[in-house]
Design goal:
alpha/beta, 7-stranded parallel beta sheet, globular, TIM Barrel
Length: about 300
């Protein structure tokens, strides 16, 4: 097994739980294919060092197992000389608002991070074009029922445009049902491995989660990771659309614009953000030449 460590740099804060602007990760080459390892320790992931140490010992941490699953699928397609995108359609995505607040033409939905800084959030929402629907991601920072009701009251000018609120507070199905009953807004659950009702909107990150069979309404997203990980999420979403299209809502697969393009050739190769991600040519997930040219090192 080989790895290539990278650093992505963002122009602004990407998560209210993480103030850093540099994000370390690693691409893996195994079983003739490629995968991406991009931890978010702030969200409970093992560190990159822990994940790589597990792999070097012949095991795999939680993210390592998903990266190796990507390697196996990608490698099988590369050995057969075929593209993983053949016959598949990548679903439409929302635009994730980063440091730049201009939403490119064509997007119908925008995702905005926010929760603790209500004044800042309202300012960002006020500057959005009036025809855009909105998804809000609080990353669980609100304080239960009272905290969410205060938050929701401040957003009254945008109530009719809000599609859902993701992770308003720690997940408790009874509490969330009460929040929905009292406000009329839908709540979405991210990074959840345990049981949840079939009608609960689930945000699925294939880089983290392996099984979403019990979920009824799915929003596939990247983990705000390297474009290789972004493509794996898009392929999982496209495969789900091919098999069970009624389960897949508008997704969040377009995130490469959140990082400075000059830091990584793959970011430039994906091009400007568009509502539907355009996959690269080549075998497997694509980018045969770009991936082959990286300075790979044996993992030991």
């Amino acid at each position: 097994m080989e790895c290539y460590e990278y650093v992505l740099r963002s122009a602004g804060e990407l998560n209210p739980l993480a103030s850093r602007r540099e994000f370390r990760g690693a691409l893996l080459r195994a079983d003739g294919g490629y995968g991406c390892l991009h931890p978010w320790p702030e969200l409970g992931d093992f560190s990159l060092e822990q994940e790589l140490a597990e792999l070097s010992r012949g095991g795999a941490g939680p993210l390592g197992r998903r990266a190796l699953a990507c390697c196996r699928v990608d490698g099988e397609a590369r050995r057969a000389g075929r593209s993983l995108w053949s016959g598949l359609t990548i679903p439409e995505s929302h635009f994730t608002l980063g440091a730049a607040e201009t939403v490119p033409e064509g997007f119908r939905l925008v995702k905005v991070k926010g929760g603790a800084d209500l004044k800042g959030l309202c300012g960002r929402l006020d500057r959005l074009p009036g025809d855009l629907r909105i998804r809000l991601d609080c990353n669980g920072v609100l304080d239960g029922l009272a905290g969410f009701l205060r938050f929701w009251a401040a957003l009254e000018p945008w109530w009719e445009r809000i599609d859902f609120v993701e992770d308003p507070c720690a997940y408790d199905e009874g509490l969330w049902r009460e929040l929905e009953r009292r406000t009329g807004v839908r709540l979405a659950l991210d990074r959840w491995e345990g049981p949840a009702p079939e009608d609960r909107i689930r945000v699925i990150k294939p880089a983290v989660q392996a099984d979403w069979r019990g979920a009824g309404r799915l929003v596939f997203t990247s983990s705000m990771d390297h474009p290789v990980g972004q493509l794996f999420a898009a392929w999982c979403a496209a495969r789900e659309v091919a098999e069970r299209p009624e389960r897949v809502l508008l997704c969040g697969l377009v995130t490469h614009h959140l990082f400075n393009a000059g830091a990584d050739p793959f970011l430039e190769a994906l091009g400007p953000p568009r509502p539907v991600l355009v996959p690269p040519a080549g075998t497997g997930l694509g980018w045969d030449d770009l991936l082959e040219a990286l300075p790979w090192k044996t993992l030991s």
